[in-house]
Request: fold
Amino acid sequence: MEVLDAAAVDTALAAGIDWQREGEELVKTRRGKDFADALAYVNAVGALAEDMDHHPDIDIRWKTVTLRLSTHSEGGITRLDLDLARRIDALPARGG
Reply:
């Protein structure tokens, strides 16, 4: 799998992926209504990640979840990260 250059990642982000690029990672922060909502979101993300066999780094702080995507084995952002980001973005809206 090939690491994408910054221009390719920026193009994907401009095309509607609701993530930020921070160095060699895609980052998304979502604030839910409470801790249970944050856990439900993490479980939904986990199901997608298992389905794709590609797993984000996940940080849960009360009702705020931060996801970080990078293909660690390749040393940067690949199409796999963009594909998972799109699938996560397509999860039903929750929280508040």
Remarks:
- The helical segments are 6-14, 35-52, 79-89.
